[in-house]
Design a protein that fits this description.
165 residues, alpha+beta, 19% strand, globular
Length: 165
Protein backbone atom coordinates (compact mmCIF):
# COMPACT_ATOMS: atom_id res chain seq x y z
CA UNK A 1 0.00 0.00 0.00
CA UNK A 2 1.42 3.38 -0.96
CA UNK A 3 1.39 6.36 1.29
CA UNK A 4 -0.57 9.09 -0.47
CA UNK A 5 -0.97 12.59 0.90
CA UNK A 6 -4.48 13.53 1.96
CA UNK A 7 -6.23 15.45 -0.76
CA UNK A 8 -8.68 18.16 0.10
CA UNK A 9 -12.12 16.94 -0.88
CA UNK A 10 -14.29 19.17 -2.99
CA UNK A 11 -17.64 20.28 -1.68
CA UNK A 12 -20.39 18.32 -3.30
CA UNK A 13 -22.71 21.29 -3.68
CA UNK A 14 -22.33 24.31 -5.95
CA UNK A 15 -21.23 27.55 -4.31
CA UNK A 16 -24.67 29.17 -4.73
CA UNK A 17 -26.21 26.56 -2.40
CA UNK A 18 -24.44 28.30 0.49
CA UNK A 19 -25.73 31.80 -0.34
CA UNK A 20 -28.84 33.46 1.07
CA UNK A 21 -31.37 33.00 3.83
CA UNK A 22 -30.69 29.38 4.62
CA UNK A 23 -29.25 27.23 7.39
CA UNK A 24 -26.12 25.11 7.21
CA UNK A 25 -24.70 22.89 9.95
CA UNK A 26 -20.91 22.52 9.85
CA UNK A 27 -18.56 20.11 11.61
CA UNK A 28 -14.82 20.77 11.76
CA UNK A 29 -12.34 18.32 13.27
CA UNK A 30 -8.88 18.69 14.70
CA UNK A 31 -6.15 16.94 12.77
CA UNK A 32 -5.47 13.48 14.22
CA UNK A 33 -8.62 14.01 16.32
CA UNK A 34 -6.54 15.27 19.26
CA UNK A 35 -8.87 15.68 22.27
CA UNK A 36 -7.72 19.21 23.14
CA UNK A 37 -10.47 21.47 21.84
CA UNK A 38 -12.58 21.65 25.00
CA UNK A 39 -9.98 23.74 26.76
CA UNK A 40 -11.21 26.84 28.64
CA UNK A 41 -8.24 28.81 27.31
CA UNK A 42 -9.04 27.97 23.68
CA UNK A 43 -12.83 28.03 23.35
CA UNK A 44 -13.45 31.73 24.17
CA UNK A 45 -10.95 32.83 21.51
CA UNK A 46 -12.50 30.51 18.92
CA UNK A 47 -16.02 31.66 19.80
CA UNK A 48 -14.95 35.27 19.28
CA UNK A 49 -13.49 34.41 15.87
CA UNK A 50 -16.62 32.45 14.97
CA UNK A 51 -18.81 35.44 15.79
CA UNK A 52 -16.58 37.79 13.83
CA UNK A 53 -16.56 35.49 10.81
CA UNK A 54 -20.31 34.93 10.85
CA UNK A 55 -21.04 38.63 11.20
CA UNK A 56 -18.75 39.59 8.31
CA UNK A 57 -20.73 37.30 5.97
CA UNK A 58 -24.23 38.21 7.18
CA UNK A 59 -24.79 35.08 9.25
CA UNK A 60 -25.96 34.39 12.77
CA UNK A 61 -24.94 31.58 15.13
CA UNK A 62 -27.91 30.24 17.10
CA UNK A 63 -25.88 27.32 18.47
CA UNK A 64 -22.38 25.86 18.52
CA UNK A 65 -20.63 23.22 20.60
CA UNK A 66 -16.96 22.46 21.01
CA UNK A 67 -16.27 18.79 21.64
CA UNK A 68 -12.85 17.46 22.65
CA UNK A 69 -11.73 16.81 19.05
CA UNK A 70 -14.24 18.62 16.85
CA UNK A 71 -16.82 21.39 16.77
CA UNK A 72 -20.35 21.78 15.46
CA UNK A 73 -21.94 25.05 14.45
CA UNK A 74 -25.24 26.05 12.90
CA UNK A 75 -25.04 29.14 10.72
CA UNK A 76 -28.14 30.90 9.42
CA UNK A 77 -28.03 33.47 6.63
CA UNK A 78 -29.74 36.70 7.61
CA UNK A 79 -29.73 38.32 4.16
CA UNK A 80 -30.21 37.28 0.55
CA UNK A 81 -26.44 37.74 0.03
CA UNK A 82 -25.32 35.93 3.21
CA UNK A 83 -22.44 33.56 2.51
CA UNK A 84 -22.48 30.64 4.94
CA UNK A 85 -19.56 28.77 3.38
CA UNK A 86 -17.59 32.02 3.29
CA UNK A 87 -18.24 32.49 7.01
CA UNK A 88 -17.05 28.98 7.82
CA UNK A 89 -14.01 29.30 5.58
CA UNK A 90 -13.06 32.59 7.28
CA UNK A 91 -13.55 31.02 10.72
CA UNK A 92 -11.29 28.10 9.82
CA UNK A 93 -8.66 30.50 8.47
CA UNK A 94 -8.72 32.86 11.47
CA UNK A 95 -8.94 30.12 14.08
CA UNK A 96 -6.21 28.14 12.32
CA UNK A 97 -3.94 31.16 12.54
CA UNK A 98 -4.88 31.64 16.22
CA UNK A 99 -4.09 27.98 16.94
CA UNK A 100 -0.78 28.29 15.08
CA UNK A 101 0.23 31.22 17.30
CA UNK A 102 -1.15 30.01 20.64
CA UNK A 103 -1.37 26.22 20.34
CA UNK A 104 1.05 25.14 17.61
CA UNK A 105 0.38 21.50 18.47
CA UNK A 106 -3.21 21.82 17.18
CA UNK A 107 -4.36 22.12 13.57
CA UNK A 108 -7.70 21.75 11.84
CA UNK A 109 -8.21 18.93 9.39
CA UNK A 110 -8.54 20.14 5.83
CA UNK A 111 -12.07 21.13 4.92
CA UNK A 112 -15.14 20.25 7.01
CA UNK A 113 -18.45 18.47 6.76
CA UNK A 114 -21.63 20.39 6.12
CA UNK A 115 -25.34 19.81 5.93
CA UNK A 116 -27.48 22.34 4.09
CA UNK A 117 -30.74 22.25 6.01
CA UNK A 118 -33.76 21.67 3.81
CA UNK A 119 -36.82 23.86 4.39
CA UNK A 120 -39.03 20.97 5.49
CA UNK A 121 -36.36 19.90 7.98
CA UNK A 122 -35.93 23.27 9.66
CA UNK A 123 -32.99 24.49 11.71
CA UNK A 124 -34.42 23.00 14.92
CA UNK A 125 -33.40 19.45 13.96
CA UNK A 126 -29.77 20.52 13.61
CA UNK A 127 -29.91 22.60 16.81
CA UNK A 128 -31.16 19.56 18.74
CA UNK A 129 -28.40 17.41 17.23
CA UNK A 130 -25.71 19.94 18.16
CA UNK A 131 -27.04 20.46 21.70
CA UNK A 132 -27.29 16.73 22.39
CA UNK A 133 -23.86 15.85 20.96
CA UNK A 134 -21.99 16.10 24.31
CA UNK A 135 -24.66 13.92 25.97
CA UNK A 136 -24.45 11.28 23.23
CA UNK A 137 -20.67 11.25 23.71
CA UNK A 138 -21.10 10.65 27.45
CA UNK A 139 -19.53 13.99 28.41
CA UNK A 140 -22.58 15.19 30.34
CA UNK A 141 -26.09 14.09 31.25
CA UNK A 142 -28.00 17.27 30.46
CA UNK A 143 -27.67 19.53 27.43
CA UNK A 144 -27.24 22.54 29.73
CA UNK A 145 -24.30 20.98 31.59
CA UNK A 146 -21.73 21.12 28.78
CA UNK A 147 -19.78 24.38 29.23
CA UNK A 148 -18.69 24.59 25.60
CA UNK A 149 -22.14 24.84 24.01
CA UNK A 150 -23.34 28.34 23.34
CA UNK A 151 -24.97 30.84 21.07
CA UNK A 152 -23.74 34.09 19.62
CA UNK A 153 -26.22 36.95 19.75
CA UNK A 154 -29.03 34.82 21.18
CA UNK A 155 -29.94 33.44 24.58
CA UNK A 156 -28.99 29.75 24.40
CA UNK A 157 -31.88 28.74 26.69
CA UNK A 158 -34.36 30.43 24.35
CA UNK A 159 -32.81 28.80 21.28
CA UNK A 160 -33.00 25.36 22.88
CA UNK A 161 -36.50 25.93 24.21
CA UNK A 162 -37.57 26.81 20.67
CA UNK A 163 -35.73 23.78 19.25
CA UNK A 164 -36.93 21.18 21.77
CA UNK A 165 -40.38 22.34 22.84
Amino acid sequence: MTNRPNRERKHRLPREDYIGRRSVAFTACLRDRKPKLNDPTIVPALVSLLGRSADSFGCCVPIYTFMPDHMHVLLIGERVDSDLKGAMDKFKYLSGFWLFRHRPDLHWQKDYWDHVVREFEGWRTQARYIAANPCRAGLCHDIFDWPYTGSIGFDLHEVLADAFW
